[in-house]
Amino acid sequence: MRVGVLVSGTGTNLQALLDAQARGELAPATIAAVISNRPEVPALGRAAAAGVPAEVVDHRGLAREAFEDRLLARLAAHRADAVVLAGFMRVLTPHFVDRFPLRIVNTHPSLLPAFPGAHALEDALAHGVKLTGVTVHFVDASLDGGPIIAQAAVPVEDGDDAAALRARIQREEHRLLPRVVQRLAAGRLSCQGRHVIGIRAE
Ligand code: GRF
What we know:
By secondary structure, the protein is an alpha/beta fold. It has helices at about 10-20, 40-50, 65-75, 95, 120-125, 160-185; strands at about 1-5, 30-35, 55, 80-85, 105-110, 130-140, 150-155, 190, 195.
């Protein structure tokens, strides 16, 4: 399975995937390309340092479908048959999503369906929850609403700010995301309605 990784920023989740690949733990998945919608983000340097093709498809000035067409064309050029959203901060429409049924995975920093959207950490802190976590899920046309593949719980400690909570959550997602990508590539995940079978809860 050739995976295209879409990023928008720091790329620590991308790094976790690259490190897993270097250790031989991602096979039969291969990271075919990394595409960022923003130029000059650290994620691009991480890809280049690992010898993985890294490109920018800038969304600015493009209508949503035109942007998605460019992404699709670049993914096709790299013969990607699956997509990982690793901190990719654009919403994808059915125009894109329908091209990769049960082949797009996202990592989200909350225990979905709690706290969807772009401010999950801040929303969890504002709500005063004692447990939050990470959800890795299939992407459909809903916002953070596709079938859940794997979750890990993370405690909220007294006095946490967003940075402290983010660090704790990211340790979990860096562990979970590569495992999910490996299982998907190995054909070990199956989806019956909303229920994804094939990965053990932790
Ligand atoms: C991650 O916390 C992920 O859950 C969210 O965006 C963040 C990206 O971080 N979707 P990074 O770019 O992988 O460091």
